[in-house]
Amino acid sequence: MATLVLHGVFRVQVRDLVRVLVWFLVLDAVSPLFPRESGSRELKELNGIWTFRADRSPNRNQGFEDGWFRRRLAETGPVIEMPVPASYNDITQDSTLRDFIGWVWYEREVLVPARWVQDQGLRLVLRVGSAHYYSMVWVNGVKVMEHEGGHLPFEAEIGTVLRKDPGSGCRITIAVNNTLTLQTLPPGVIMHFNDPTRYPEGYFVQNIYFDFFNYAGIHRPVLLYTTPRVYVDDITVVTDFSDNMGFVSYVVSVGGASTSTVKVTLMDKDGQCVASSTGLTGVLKVVDVNLWWPYLMHQNPGYLYSMEVRVTASDEKSTYEDVYTLPVGIRTVNVTKSRFLINNKPFFFNGVNKHEDADIRGKGLDWPLMVKDFNLLKWLGANSFRTSHYPYAEEILQMSDRHGIVVIDECPGVGIKDIRSFGNASLSHHLSVMDELVRRDKNHPSVVMWSVANEPAAEMPPADFYFKTLIKHTKDLDQTRPVTFITDSNYARDKGAPYVDVICVNSYFSWYHDPGHPEVIPIQLNTQFENWYGKYQKPIIQSEYGADAVAGLHSVRASGFTHRVPELTMGSEVNAVFAVCQDPPVMFTEEYQTAVLRRYHGVFDQKRKEYVVGELIWNFADFMTAQGTCGSKGLTRVSPGFTLRVSRHGNGAGSALVKLRLLTPTTNQLSRTGLSNSC
């Protein structure tokens, strides 16, 4: 009998998997299944150019006082065009809009197919993938929903509104406010300046406690979709295997009917049925199972089955049928005292931290950029990333599922530094965010661990109760994945560490600490690992490390002759310029970045033999930060600017070094052929 084990916290036999699924059902219906077309469902994307207006009134409240949602936005005053999805900050040449804090208004008039409105047997749902930070939505002047949080989807059924006056069309108005407070996630504070000799009247700024730009707007797709009146509301799967037999335990939630018939069919990649069942709950048994494996851990990574759920119900008027197909990867995740296991095999996180960030579109979902980034990840030989420091778009997780890229899924709990952010209001909101996140991402095989925060003030007294409650809540929601948070606190005083399953620690030796002295890295990094493991006896991931670099800035003097350098040319026949005069590396040069990485890597290679289970470099690619002379971490941050590892337009020495490292079998858990090395 196969068993799931998580650091001694629980043991679940296969026969009990359905009981485990009940934990998922406590979640409120905040964000249901990702919209997919089928024979019973249609979808209309509303991406493109929307009408836009920022509320520049002193109190940012004119839009509500004048009821901008009651009429066409162009009738309320000057408007501009705004792309969706995209952050609004970098779209115009207006610096006041780039740094705008407060309510902005979006509007789109949509042609809805007449049959959607006329068919009383259809639900018509408006869905927003995400908008930062607080959102209110109206349809034809009628408020249909509001949502707090900048990174998760929200939706409402709007058929009733449209059917009240079928000839009125569909005018969608969305108001978005990016103001952050000490109780939001992430937190922030508004600072008012009243000195008339230095500041204009009513002047204020938004202070934040995190090192990335506070982009705002509608960041992910907006769409309309239909379902029958009786529909598949939610699906939860938990997977396991024993020898060559796979198990897919499922729970189906049906909306719109108290009784219904449910048929579940599991198909392989060729569309062949491999298992089927009936009923709202069940266990599908798959003979000769193809497991979901991470990239480079198997010759066929990211294998996905398709689970078709077909719901049928009748009333006195009609018969309804809904079909929804969910991709399913069969795999297990376990944690021991010193190992992270996927499918009972040791897994090492050779990966990166990322940001949803790019020129012009800010945090807006961008398909070309997403595909490019995954190509770069695989070029590097990376097998994983962390969604630093907020939930990423569902489309990104779907791509991770398909490519076998492992994900640490992080909520937007970044910048919890002020003691007032540990209060009951903050905790209540944090719990709700985890509800939404787990409900949204619970079925992604690529998601192997939840992260509830990044670098909080975990040494403060209230942090103990806060993280004990938060982590227990997350484990109650999902008993199949470990839970962590990312810490930079002192190992002996960190009040949240006792409750996590994996220690994730950030450190920047010779950068934020002892800057300019990479020679201290081996001593300090070894001490760090020994201290954390000695106290907690849990596997450790180096969740951030690195050094900033300005692309093309060097501390070498090159001569004119050439020499073939295989390490720099990746073994090609191209000759490289040979530097005959190597000056000592200085900070912000590519040579200093490389020196720092080499020192870290030497320690990682030793400690992975014991209890270190991952290294995630900061950062995968360039990202924007707020303007300033120092930034929150002193003069060791280019501001505004970037922490570079990979440039999407060309790569430097740091990324070349990491590519060599991650693709070398002696330093990677997995060989180039995809066959697992013993460890």
Q: Could you explain how this protein is built, in words?
A:
- It is found in: Lysosome.
- Its EC number is 3.2.1.31.
- It is an enzyme of class 3 (hydrolase).
- This protein has 679 residues and is an alpha+beta fold.
- It has three domains: 3-36 and 227-328, Sandwich (Immunoglobulin-like), CATH 2.60.40.10; 48-84 and 86-178 and 214-219, Jelly Rolls (Sandwich), CATH 2.60.120; 348-549 and 586-662, TIM Barrel (Alpha-Beta Barrel), CATH 3.20.20.
- Helix content is 19%, strand content 30%.
- It is built from 13 helices and 38 strands.
- The strands form eleven sheets. Strands 27-28-29-30-31-32-33-38 form an eight-stranded parallel barrel, surrounded by four helices. The protein has a six-stranded antiparallel beta sheet with strand order 5-4-6-12-9-10, with no helix packed on it.
- The radius of gyration is 26 Å and the shape is globular.
Features:
Glyco_hydro_2_CS, disordered C terminus, six-stranded antiparallel beta sheet, 679 residues, Beta-glucuronidase, disordered N terminus, TIM Barrel, alpha+beta
* C-alpha termini separation: 25 Å
The low-confidence runs, each spanning 5 or more residues with pLDDT under 50, are 1-31, 567-571, 634-645, 665-679
| Helix-strand makeup class | alpha+beta
Radius of gyration: 26 Å
Strand line-up in the sheet with most strands: 27-28-29-30-31-32-33-38
Under CATH, the homologous superfamily of the largest domain reads: Glycosidases
The overall pLDDT average reads 88
The biggest sheet, with number of strands, parallel, antiparallel or mixed sense and barrel status, is: 8 strands, parallel, barrel
Gross morphology is globular
CATH topology-level fold name of the largest domain: TIM Barrel
How many separate domains? Answer: 3
CATH class of the largest domain: Alpha Beta
Number of helices: 13
